[in-house]
Amino acid sequence: MDRIIVYPGQIPTDAMFLNTNQIAMVALGLLAQAVLGTNTVADGLACTPTTPASLSVLVGPGSIYSVANLEATAYGSLPADTTDQIVKQGIVLGNTTFNCPAPVTSGQSVVYLVQAQYQDTDGGSTVLPYYNASNPAVPYSGPSNSGNPQNTIRKGVCFLSLKTGVAATTGTQTTPTPDAGYVGLYAITVANGQTTVTSGNIKQLATAPIIGKKLVDMLTAIQQDTPNFALDTSGVANTITVALTPAPAALTDGMVVRVKVANSSTGATVMNVNGLGNVACKTTSGADFGTNTVVANGIYTFVYDANGNRLQLQGFTAAAATGLIPANNLSDVSSVSTSRTNLGLGTAAVKATSDNTKSTVAAVSGSITAGHIATFADSSGTVQDGGSPVFTKSYSTTGQAISLGGTLTLTHGLGAAPKFIMTSIVCTSAEAGYNVGDELIVSLGGPYSGTSVTATGGAMTVDATTINIKWSNGVAVFNSMLNKSTGAVVSLTESKWTLSVKAFA
Questions:
Q1: Could you please report the per-residue DSSP string of 427-461?
Q2: For residues 248 and 206, what is the distance between their CA atoms, to the nearest angstrom?
Q3: What value does the CA radius of gyration of the chain take, rounded to a whole number of Å?
Q4: Which residue of 39, 76, 357, 452 has the fewest C-beta atoms within 10 A of its own C-beta?
Q5: How far apart are CA 240 and CA 344, in angstroms?
Q6: Is residue 128 part of a domain?
Q7: Which whole-number Å values give the CA distances from 43 to 61, 116, 418, 492, in the listed order?
Q8: Could you tell me what percentage of the chain is helix, strand and coil, using 3-state DSSP and rounding each to the nearest 5?
Q9: CA-CA distances (angstroms) from residue 313 to 128, 278, 287, 305, 480?
Q10: Which one of 293, 314, 335 terminates a domain?
Q11: Do 109 and 165 have their domain in common?
């Protein structure tokens, strides 16, 4: 950064002051360019309805940063400089009001464009005193005592304007393009008969170069990966619609897009990022999506591949030259050995040895019937058919009410009488030293033996369809329980406990 040198006794000149201002402007401009680049950007300038509501909008204070000539016209005694360019800051400190009248033709709407531009504007015009050599006590008014006013400040201005679109049948109206040298910021849509502009009528353009995050917010944004993440707003399957912030001007090779998908895929799928057009979504093998390749409410990572203009779904591992298989979705693989190969586990199963280490299974002895248990026959690792499992079906229920002398019928849907039943009661309101959520294993009629039996709390019978419980009608259903803290015999209050049942067949 340059600095002006002055000396004791030196007569100051106007150029010294002007050069000092210009040097500071150049330094700040190059700093802004180093941070923001050379594309025009804006900050602030929020567009909101008026209060009270009307057919006008307010554009708030803000600034614009744009490349401009160092001096488009002479700056005092310094000549114009249209050869050198720097990033300049234009400022607007107050609110700007724009009127957006509704179209007069029924059934039509119109779009208004709020646009901005950097401008150098000379202002502060006044008649300045000048030195009068013939009579120093009486200064001249203006140069050569002409009385002419002169500008005293060169302002960097953020100039805002409203451009009116062409009224058209509602739904066909279009946003006008910005004028040369301007950038578009907001589109305001007003329909015939409308009397006020609401926030819903105001849309920031996807191309508006408004700074969204400040430097202090950048670390949080990076940590949260906000620039690359968006929610899918599409209402139909096989179409993903996202709007990243800030909006990318284009998709670039290797660009990452993370999406919380709204709908499960049923076939070939496309994604539209910030209105840049539909791009085919592919697996990393180049295949189209199928049923549930992506699932509603799942979060997925895509990478843009410019070679083929496609967005590739990540999270896949190579299976063979013929294609890629999802490593986290083995249900798509018909061969167990292929599944294990995809996961890098090899083709053989493993067994646990006596020292709890793992070794490779040596062989499979004969065939193993689907649904049977595979067992280790000897220390060599040979596997054989261990027969059917004891239980193949289960049923459970919780939160069942307990009533003195009452009955409870549960439809288990097992298709056969349960072979084993476990019952417990869960505390819902503290008593007898028990806390909410404590669970006590209890016996209702003891282990089932094919006939109705009774035990503490109630009698239980079962058949191929239901579990039937008849509660005790004594002092309490559970009147011979133990206090959790003291061990004293207590009766439990039915309303403070619920029944849980698990049955197996």
A1: ESS-BTTBPTT-EEEE-SSSS--SS-EEETTEEEE
A2: 9
A3: 40
A4: 357
A5: 32
A6: yes
A7: 9, 11, 71, 68
A8: 10, 40, 50
A9: 70, 15, 10, 11, 62
A10: 314
A11: yes
Query: Are both 402 and 481 inside the same structural domain?
Result: yes
Name the residue range of residue 244's domain.
Answer: 228-314
Amino acid at 466: T
Identify which of 488, 346, 500, 364 has the alpha carbon closest to the alpha carbon of residue 431: 488
Query: Do both 53 and 182 map to the same domain?
Result: yes
Record the tokens describing residue 206, joined without a space. 């996807």
Helix (H, G, I), strand (E, B) or coil at 418: coil
Token pair 């015009």 is found at: 125
DSSP letter at 97 equals: E
415 and 385: one domain? no
Q: Which tokens belong to 175? A: 């946003």
Integer CA distances (angstroms), 280 to 233, 267, 272, in order: 17, 11, 9
Residue 187 CB neighbours (<10 A) = 22
pLDDT at residue number 486? 93
Domains: count for the chain = 4
Task: Report the alpha-carbon distance of residue 44 to residue 187 in Å, rounded.
Answer: 16
State whether 424 and 491 are in the same domain: yes
- Residues 279, 406, single domain; the answer is no
DSSP 180: T
- Is the confidence at residue 168, as pLDDT, over 50? yes
Strand 239-242 to strand 256-260: parallel, antiparallel, or no bridges (unpaired)?
unpaired
Place of tokens 């248990």: 373
Exposed e or buried b for every residue in 225-256, given b needs 16+ CB within 10 A? ebbbbbebebeebbbbbbebebbbeebeeebe
The token pair that represents 189 in the structure block: 């849509």
In a domain, 222, yes or no: no
* pLDDT value of residue 285: 81
Are 52 and 167 members of one domain?
yes
Determine, yes or no, domain membership for 326.
no
> What pLDDT digit, counting tens, does each position of 327-356 carry?
444 444 455 565 555 555 555 554 444 444
Each residue's pLDDT tens digit, 357-393: 444 444 555 566 666 666 655 555 566 666 777 888 9
pTM over 0.85: no
How far apart CA 402 and CA 497 sit, in angstroms, is 7
pLDDT at 326 over 70: no
Q: Prior bond to 52 cis, omega within 30?
A: yes
Output the 3-class SS for 336-396.
HHHHHHHCCCCCCCEEECCCCCEEECCCECCCCCCCCCEEECCCCCCEEECCCCCCCCEEE
Q: Is residue 415 part of a domain?
A: yes
